[in-house]
Design a protein that fits this description.
alpha+beta; 11 strands; 13 helices; five-stranded mixed barrel
Length: 396
């Protein structure tokens, strides 16, 4: 009834008294607002109250009833709602948790820390309110985590996948490493037939350290699914977005095949890429030398970087309609089939080389360089540039 109580609290005292008069509810005279709300809730059915609120445009026509919520939330999940909510709420910040407290008309939460707020919410709500909270928040929380995971896979986040290792194929155990500008995160996941109802997992991040569904978990989830460790039809712990399979359709495992690593003692090192993104191409060339055979300059930005009182000046060049391939040692090694096309690419050019080449927006541009990931800004960039030219040509 929390949603209804919250909606009733949006009415003023006069409006609440009018409801009492119109529906023959006695005993409201002299009561305070909160007391009148409680009286209405006790005196009328949920359907009656919803109809009143709809007429006043306080709630929408499609607002679900308690029974509808219960049916929607019902699943084959084996863990109880309290435990599940504890996992979900780890993804929310203090402000969002306090908003839940306000929505459910809870009191005494001011000054509580995140972990205390979560415990306070779980202790304060009824089973019916658990259902409502899961109904309201589950898909939103899960979707946000999956979307952030996909951004990391696509290289669009400030944190990137460093490597994924299959530590124990028999138990589907994987370890994932992530790297940011000045931080690293390590995560563990094992989804098997025996534990799929609540997989073994751990993560260094604040969400995952408390069994929450962090983006690192979802990357491990997608990897395990793509690796064939489980079938999606057997997953009941969480609901997933309706378009989940479409979201991950273009994501694939990239790395040396396990069969080729059998003789080595080290675990297999893999990653995930989105084959439809430019970053997938750049990821395959990460830390490797490439040649830009074609590109049009769209923007040039002068950058000053200071470190320990030493100032470095360089230029960031934005290219569009790019064609690149592995750097070759001799013309005879050129292979047109290895040329790949990108919509755009960033190139870092030293102050010295920029002064020599004299480029401007609209010019054609080509060069050799090394693909790196700028973990601070979250994009791939071509560095250590040699042979910059405004007249690039493919070997004939």
């Amino acid at each position: 009834m929390s949603l209804i109580m919250k909606s009733l609290n949006d009415l003023n005292v006069k409006e609440l008294r009018d409801i009492c008069r119109n529906y023959d509810i006695s005993g409201y005279s002299g009561l305070k607002k909160a007391e009148i709300v409680s009286l209405i809730v006790k005196s009328l059915s949920e359907k009656n109250i919803k109809d009143i609120l709809k007429q006043k445009a306080i709630i929408k026509e499609d607002t679900s009833s308690t029974e509808e919520v219960r049916k929607e939330v019902a699943s084959d999940r084996k863990i109880d709602n309290r435990t599940y909510l504890n996992y979900l709420l780890q993804s929310l910040n203090v402000k969002e948790l306090k908003l839940i407290c306000r929505d459910f008309l809870l009191k005494g939460y001011s000054g509580l820390k995140k972990s205390e707020l979560i415990e306070f919410i779980l202790d304060s709500l009824s089973e019916e309110e658990y259902n409502r909270l899961i109904y309201d928040k589950e898909i939103e929380i899960i979707s946000d985590g999956i979307e952030l995971a996909i951004k990391k896979i696509q290289g669009k986040d400030r944190e990137m996948i460093k490597e994924i290792k299959i530590m124990n194929p028999d138990l589907n155990e994987i370890e994932l490493s992530f790297k940011g500008f000045n931080w690293e995160v390590n995560s563990f996941l094992s989804i098997t037939e025996d534990n799929i109802e609540n997989p073994e997992r751990d993560c260094d991040c604040r969400i995952g350290a408390n069994m929450g569904f962090c983006s690192h978990f979802w990357i491990g989830f997608i990897f395990s699914l793509k690796q064939g460790f489980f079938k999606l039809e057997d997953w009941h712990l969480t609901r997933l977005p309706e378009n989940f399979e479409e979201q991950i359709n273009s994501i694939q495992i990239y790395g040396t095949a396990l069969e080729e690593k059998k003789k080595e003692e080290e675990a297999e090192e893999l990653t995930l890429i989105d084959r439809d993104s430019d970053d997938a191409i750049l990821m395959k060339h990460l830390d490797s030398r490439v040649t830009v055979y074609k590109g049009e300059i769209t923007n040039i930005e002068r950058v000053e970087s200071e470190f320990q009182e030493y100032v470095t000046i360089y230029y960031l060049i934005d290219l569009k309609n790019v064609e690149l391939g592995p750097q070759i040692k001799a013309k005879k090694d050129f292979d047109e089939n290895k040329i790949q096309k990108l919509e755009k690419l960033k190139v870092r050019l030293s102050d010295n080389k920029y002064d020599k080449i004299k480029i401007k927006a609209g010019d054609n541009f080509g060069c050799n360089g090394t693909i790196n990931k700028d973990t601070f800004h979250g994009y791939y960039v071509l560095k250590r540039v040699t042979k910059p030219t405004t007249n690039p040509k493919k070997p004939s």
